[in-house]
Amino acid sequence: MPGGSATFLTTQWSMVLSARDAASPGSREALESLCAHYWLPIYAFLRRQHFTPADAEDLVQGFFASLLAHQSLEAVAPERGRFRSFLLAALRNYLSDQRDRERALKRGAGIPPISLDADTAESQYASQVSDGETPERCFERQWAWSVLRRAEEQLSRECRDAGKADLHAALGPQTESGRNESHAAIAARLGMTENAVRVAAFRLRQRFQELVRREIRETVSHPSEVDAEIRHLLEVLANRS
Amino acid sequence: MGRNCPSCGTALPPGRREEFCVVCTLQGALEIGRRNPQPPALLRQVGTYELIEEVARGGAGVIYRATQLGLGRDVALKLLIAGPLADATTRQRFRAEAEAAAQLRHPHIVAIHEVGDHEGQPYLAMEFLSGGTLADRVRDGPLSSREAAAIGVKIARAVAFAHDAGILHRDLKPSNILLDAFGEPKLTDFGLAKAIGYRAEAGLTLPGQVLGSPGFMSPEQVRGRAEDIGRATDIYSLGALVYQLVTARAPFQGESTAAVLRLVETEEPIPPRRLNAGIDRDFEQILLKCLEKSPTRRYASAHDLAADLERFLNGQPVKARPLGAVARAWRWSRRRPAFAIAFVLLSAIAILSSSTAWRIRRAELTARQNLDRAYQNAYAGDLALADRAIEDGDLARTRELLERHIPTKSELDLRTFEWRLLWNQSTDESSAQLTGHKHVVSAVAYFPDGDRLASGSWDGTVRFWKTPEGTLERTLTDYRGQIWTIDISSDGRRLLVSGNQGFAIWQHDQDWWFRGRIVGDFSYGTARFLPNPSQVIVANRQGATVWNITNGVRVLDLPEAASPVAISPDGQRLATRLGNQLSIFDTATWNVLRRFKTGNYSSFGLRDLAFSPDGKRVLIGDYRGWLASVDLSGSETNVSEITLSRVHPQPHHGWVGEIVFSPDGQYFASVGADQRVRVWRPSNGRLRFDWRGHRHEVWAARFSPDGRWLATAGKDESVRLWDLHAPSRTQERTAPVRNVLGVWNATEVLVDAVPDSTRRDRLLQIYDWEQRNILREIPLPSLTTNALIGIQPATGDVAIHGVTGGIEVWNIRSDAPQRRLHLASAVETSPSTSPPRLSRDGTRVGVHGPGTAATLWTIPAGTRPLQLVDAGEVMEIDEQYVYTRPVPNTPRVYDRTTGRRVVELVGHKEPVPAILPLPGGRTVATGGWDGSLRFWSLPDGRLLATTRSQRQGIYGLALTPDGKTLAAGGQDGVTHFWNVSSRQQTTRWVIRRIVHRLWFAPDGQALILDHGNQLSILRVPNDPMRFSP
Q1: N or C terminus of chain A with fewer C-beta within 10 Å?
Q2: Structural domains in chain B (count)
Q3: Using alpha carbons only, how large is chain B's radius of gyration in Å?
Q4: Which of B321, B339, B369 is the last residue of a domain?
Q5: Is residue A100 situated within a structural domain?
Q6: CB A3 to CB B991 under 8 A?
Q7: Domain assignment present for A7
């Protein structure tokens, strides 16, 4: 396309899917990156299947190792539409293989393909576990939260880069100590007009929605699937409440 | 705590602000999608078909080989690329026509399995034929008369069958005849088909498609007269098609589309026997009868043609008969009425009435206009295709499309700004292309003397090239595996190569010799000489190892470190990825000196690292195409949070291949999957060069030791050299400039330097914004408050509304001290009044007021000013009309001589900030916040066309000085270019900043965009030398 930058329609997931030759460096890295960001839902799925935290951790690493070695990409062709569905299908395949092989992979064998903070994983899982939920539902819900968390991190980073960390702290998704400060109070504290705070709050919310959308786009094979994926996540989250 | 979202009632987790309720957020994200629909791209699955590969591409669409999921059968899937003007009605109509064609079941018509619609894009699934096309077949040489006639019969029967079903093909040509595995011809691509009797709009609605094959078009198609197109049109094209089978060329050939079209309309085809003496005389007559200019003189039906071809095959006399001399003369006079009239006038003046002459001349004029329109359509269509081709990175295709419009001496030159813009972008800007490798070229390295460079490839060879000439000096073939990296020692005598067969060393004594190899897999790896000349570090994705290469001993393992690695210029430090962190090692002790936490800036995405020559920073390039700079001297250790300062919003699309600093630190270069080679200034992060030329992913880059050359290499199997001293072709530059009143020329702008409306003195500056120089200052004393300033760059006139006692007009272009002109006025200004407008011819100035009226003065003054009742804000004044805006959505047009209202332009749904009269004074373009660009005819105010290319509002319009191209800019940060005469969009320029206003420089060689607090310039010099193939 003419100009400095084209409309960027390649998503990370489509990069993985479109790689005809496995040596194409971009595709492997895109997959690695996706895995690194979306391991928590897998961990939750495994925990929900009553694996111990240590086993769940080993299985996550083993699963990603096999995935990144391109052993599973072809196996799940019909599920290839979205990264979320692909990952769950691939995980199921992997688990059935592993059961046959008595879960050959043990902690310490090989180099972990992703860095996985087991304590965070366990605390995240424990804080959101819900009784009677199927592993699949648990996966889906954690997935939705992973998407939102990624967008939150991005929002926080953008605000800091723009020197607006204080606004982010005052108006961002998470409140410290749960207090909901009024716009007037924030305005007074930050030396802004109340109207400016209102506008900033609106923009922040708007930006967050955009970031969520962008994040979701990376996990589908084509931008046109974004809406359907959002609707799916909405359904997952709405059913919880 | 049990809080719930007040909007949707969803339970909020502890600590979550209610405005960020997850359900509401996702709903908001959905809403964004509704506001900004994504364009279709990168399709992999369409309906129940999975696309396998692209097999053909034409003006109308792309054809893929696809598998029908479930049935598992191969099909040819055609996706229609909707033209820029295609709306729901067009698609619907197309679909209806395609469905009609789908009903044609005939052994010589390609069967259509399904006509479907995928996300609003219509598609056709057809039987897949593996035998290629007739065009492929004839490329090997002409067919015999009998072979061609046999094919012709079959195609003519198929065409007759379609005609009987009420369908015209309208695009018959050899590439539309597919061959099955047994060589049986089958007719396809009813893409342009129309139901017989269907009244098409005048002109050519799908220019790229129709004119993609001008050699097969009938004269009535060239003339664009819909009512003349009928069965005989297909018979003409059938004749042209068979003509090509026996002569291996189309009946008419020319150097450009325009030339061919002209020949089709005016010239007789060369009799085929003159091109191929082996053609039978009767067969020739059949072809010439098909190719008659007048539809009525061709075969009456495709059945008749088929029957005559069969007669020829059976050795019977054919019905086509040569013309007599009288018929020829008549035909000649019909095509050249002016000459004919001259001839007849000379010989028989007395009997010819002048009214007949007038009528014939009228006919000639209309034909001429139709022809011009056809050329314009062809031009706009080809440019739109070129725009798409450049987006696909297909420079060769872009060139091919552009070259069609390089005129010969006698032809009209349609090219203007956007043609040059595309030409520049499709230019391979590299100075040398070093070819010879047989696979991906993954690495390049310069020798220290700078006279040679080495390249390594997946073909297993290392090649040495003389630079900058680019001649191959020698090839080392010992590696035998995929080479991923190469490095040359600082004394230039050792070469280190790594890849999937381990790493290997060559040494130069009298000659280069292969010292040996350590086996291992270093795909995705890096290998570098260390400051100690006997040591190297070799890394892959799993770890890094230091080796002594003199004795082959493994010195040290850095198991957590992994590729990429970079060594500081002084050799004392090494940067690498360590787990999730960017780590800096001391190369003497191998202790870690610094660690930078990369957090979510995932280390997996890290593609390459580079030390700046002063050793103070490390640049990171990643798989997302981002670049980041890490300050090694700073105290911050958290890369993702603070020290990561991105240099550009999107340095590359797709991953970054390599980043490399120039030896003097003046520049750094990055290359990537997007085929781009980009050179940046590290001091300010500005893009200095943006080079195109590679035809595939770019993997490697190195500067020459003197910093003048950049060598790059990649998947297109070439090494390319780029000259940093060469001027860049298309240059986009941006600089901060506020309060621009208008543009004098490409670099000089007129600025309102003290834009404070409450002041009674103001200051104008003529400002060279590239050099950041104030060239002239013009103080404006004795103003009232809210004074408004308007300028007319064409004349250099400035109008100030709000000088004590009225309006002043003076000229600041002429060096003579301002010829001031004082216009008494009772018009008060207020903060809401718009600035005065000056006409391009310098004879009128108009202002808003009094009240809802507008006032128009003549310059020089003398006559009483005209009041334009209820005109409101004056937007534009041309030679005939005043364009105003009484209410934001509905512009009005007034006669500038009488002051009477001419017409109102009703249709925009939101405010119209831009009005632009087009050359000729009979059309005006408007651009609105609703994102639509509309063309209106004057004086009747009829809406000629509405187009909606911009996804968000249009804020400004500009016209090239030659009047050929219209540019529209606005909210979406994309400048769209339109061909004025065909009213079709040609190309776009993405700048990603809101464009408030835009101007072409008076010389037509630059476009200046005003972003509110910045100006950008897009330079496209008009250098004729450059624009030759």
Answers
A1: C
A2: 5
A3: 35
A4: B321
A5: yes
A6: yes
A7: no
B654 close to A (CB below 8 A)? yes
Rg (CA), chain A: 20
Q: Is residue B815 part of a domain?
A: no
Give the pairing of strands B441-446 and B452-457: antiparallel
**Cα–Cα distance list, B551 to B185, B257, B530, B536, B790 (Å):** 69, 68, 15, 12, 80
> What is the token pair recorded at A194?
């109340």
B401 φψ region: left (φ > 0), alpha (ψ -120 to 50), beta (else) = alpha
Rounded to whole angstroms, how far apart are CA atoms B354 and B362? 12
Of B877, B737, B916, the residue nearest B799 (C-alpha): B877
Could A221 and B44 be called an inter-chain contact, meaning their C-beta atoms sit closer than 8 Å?
yes
Show residues of chain B in contact with A142, CB under 8 Å. Answer: none
**Beta-carbon contacts of residue A49 (< 8 Å; ≥ 6 apart):** A95, A135
- Is B897 part of a structural domain of the chain? no
Q: pLDDT tens-digit profile of B658-692?
A: 999 999 999 999 998 878 899 998 887 778 888 88
DSSP-assigned letter for residue B749? E
> What are the beta bridge partners of residue B656?
B672
A207–chain B nearest CA distance, Å:
10
Q: Are B644 and B541 in a shared domain?
A: yes
Distance from CA of A177 to the nearest CA of B (A): 7
Whether B655 contacts chain A with CB within 8 A = yes
DSSP string, B437-452: -SS-EEEEEE-TTSSE
Report the distance separating Cα B957 and Cα B996, nearest Å. Answer: 10
Give the model's confidence band at B439: pLDDT under 50 very low, under 70 low, under 90 confident, else very high.
Answer: very high
Quick check: B14 contacting A, CB < 8 Å? yes
Q: Are residues B361 and B303 in the same domain?
A: no
Together in a domain, B184 and B89: no
Per-residue pLDDT at B720: 96
Instruction: Please state the ipTM of this predicted complex.
Output: 0.82
B260 and B375 assigned to the same domain: no
- Give percent above pLDDT 90 in chain B: 26
Is residue A119 in some structural domain? yes
Q: At what angle do helices B354-391 and B395-403 cross, to 10 degrees?
A: 170
Report strand pairing: B965-970 vs B844-848. unpaired
Closest residue to A36, CB basis, from B20, B422, B602? B602
What's the pLDDT at B493? 93
- Partners of B17 on chain A (C-beta within 8 Å) are 171-175, 180
The terminus-to-terminus CA distance of chain A in angstroms comes to: 45
Same domain, B255 and B376: no
Residues 6+ away with beta carbon under 8 Å from B295: B218, B220, B228, B230, B232, B233, B236
What was the pLDDT predicted at B281?
87
Do B117 and B168 lie in one domain? The reply is no
Domain that holds residue A217: 12-240
For residues A77 and B297, give the distance between their C-alpha atoms in angstroms, rounded to a whole number: 59
Number of structural domains, chain A?
Answer: 1
Contact B524 A115 (CB under 8 A): no
Judge whether B210 and B192 are in contact, CB under 8 Å. Answer: yes
Q: Are B967 and B1007 in contact (CB under 8 A)?
A: yes
Kindly determine whether residue B19 and residue A222, on different chains, have CB atoms separated by under 8 Å: no
Task: Quote the crossing angle between the two packed helices B325-335 and B337-348, to the nearest 10°.
Answer: 110
Q: Are residues B405 and B472 in the same domain?
A: no
Amino acid at B864: R
> Where on the phi/psi map is residue B815: left (φ > 0), alpha (ψ -120 to 50), or beta?
alpha
Same domain, B140 and B99: no
Given a cut of 90, is residue B302 above it in pLDDT? yes
Helix/strand/coil for B709: strand
Specify if B648 maps to a domain: yes
pLDDT, tens digit (0-9, with 9 covering 90-100), for B315-344: 888 887 654 444 444 444 444 444 444 444
And the tokens for B971? Answer: 């909210």
Q: Is B144 on the interface with A (CB under 8 A)?
A: no
